[in-house]
Design a protein that fits this description.
144 residues; alpha+beta; Alpha-Beta Plaits
């Protein structure tokens, strides 16, 4: 009832209400299933930069701090990826481009709306003109 008092809120446009307590508890539950999930999400949602490695710090700490400087970016994938499965494309991005492909934007045939597949199954094949979601240090890294 209170949402209807907000003039800009419109459920027909896809506006949703987010319950922060439910979100926090969901992160805790996911961290039980996948240790480190809440840390990853917190780091992705915060803005930090870390450019220099320190020889005085342990390697794991340098790696962690470098990871906190990463952000999520989207970019259209090259048509060269068409026909590859998601795991093949993710492996190629990681080994050759040093990018972490975590999701794709997909469309059903004949539909205007799209949906996001996070780490899709091994049998999902990429099509041409598909958008990828990456974790990287900068947008320039993703665009190359």
């Amino acid at each position: 009832a209170y949402l209807l008092n907000i003039p800009s809120w419109n459920w027909k446009r896809g506006d949703d209400c987010v319950c922060l307590a439910e979100l926090k508890l969901g992160f805790l539950a996911q961290s039980c299933l996948a240790p480190g999930f809440s840390t990853l999400m917190a780091n992705l949602f915060s803005m930090r930069s870390y450019k220099t490695l320190s020889p005085d710090m342990p390697q794991w700490l340098n790696d962690y701090l470098r990871g906190t400087g990463m952000e999520m970016y989207t970019e259209l994938l090259s048509n060269s990826f068409a026909g590859l499965t998601f795991p093949e494309a993710a492996e190629l991005c990681f080994l050759k481009l040093k990018l972490l492909l975590i999701a794709i934007e997909a469309r059903q045939e004949g539909a205007d709306e799209s949906y996001i597949l996070i780490n899709p199954r091994y049998d999902v094949k990429l099509e041409s003109n598909i958008r990828g979601f990456f974790i990287a240090e900068s947008a320039d890294e993703v665009k190359r």
